[in-house]
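Researcher: Please generate the 3D structure of the following complex. Treat every line as part of one assembly.
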Amino acid sequence: VFRDFFGGSNPFADFFDTNGDFMTGFGGIRGRGRKKQDPPIERDLYLSLEELFHGCTKKMKISRRVMNDDGHTSSIRDKILTIHVKPGWKAGTKVTFPQEGDQGPNNTPADIVFIVRDKQHPLFSRSGNNLVFIAKIPLGKSLIGCSIEVPTLDGRLLNVPVNDIVHPKYTKKIPGEGMPLSKDPTIKGDLVIEFDIQFPEQLTPEKKQLIRQALLI
Amino acid sequence: VFRDFFGGSNPFADFFDTNGDFMTGFGGIRGRGRKKQDPPIERDLYLSLEELFHGCTKKMKISRRVMNDDGHTSSIRDKILTIHVKPGWKAGTKVTFPQEGDQGPNNTPADIVFIVRDKQHPLFSRSGNNLVFIAKIPLGKSLIGCSIEVPTLDGRLLNVPVNDIVHPKYTKKIPGEGMPLSKDPTIKGDLVIEFDIQFPEQLTPEKKQLIRQALLI
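Model: Done. Output below.
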């Protein structure tokens, strides 16, 4: 639908980055005498993990055609739609504003539907109610043991001791440090730590000899 | 379609394992006076990587209803359909036998279509024209270097020296040891060796000290 008005596939991508987002284009001229409702107008609503963790309010400004009081002329008006994002909402959650599309003399305005999408996060990915963090550790520490520091979405720094030998598929789970459950935000999923083990790029013959003694004898 | 006659989802699964496969059930009584052709009857044809590497001939016995000479009675007859599998065929390749479905007084018999599927192989997986082999090696050898032995689908044993340090995402490519190209079976894809590095389950303090000297100092 948007494509019809603007010719681009995602003309609003830039408008979702801050609170008080500005958005235009729920407009367009119709009026061919249809009486049934237009199909819903769906838009992606990209939210950061922090926004989904804490919950937030997003204000979306739309520009729509409304009928004037005379009943047969119309004009373009701005309107603010307010979305109350609850902690724990998942990608795919739909928020519907009924009949907020363009008004015309003979149509029922379309519903406007926002669909929650995950904005990519620099540190975490989400898996259901869990958060996944990838810790880079050097091979030596993966064998000897270490402590790693893991930031949280609410600004704390977790110190996680790792005493097991860390192999490439090893994961460590920290209960209750994941995303809040939307049904009860006091309960949270898990933080799952995966490990990206950094191997040395080269080894001297002397160091290879030490490795041989440690691992192959 | 098969489900209608047998009630199971894959009644022929067992019949595909050997050459000269036996297959029944392209049968069933129709005859409600339809004149157009019935929809194609599609069956999976599971083939091993060896069969797709060398090519092979598969004989499928079907049991179908054919019209008698009198033109209004019919009987069930067995028939052998022969599939010439060419080296390099890929999953998804379709082999159509036109109008080999049930005959009826008023219908055009359905086409019978076999769709090539990959049978799981114990050692290799296929990726386009490449073969992927996962080599298990102990961590020590991944750091010091080693030779690994890799079997081929045509019964040879490749000896592959690995001198680089092998990290979890390291791969080694051997050109020309993959699957034949169906357009020209004299040309073959690559063999891609991935590595599953076996970490020790525990280390003594003495060995940890050697690791520390080799990797962390």
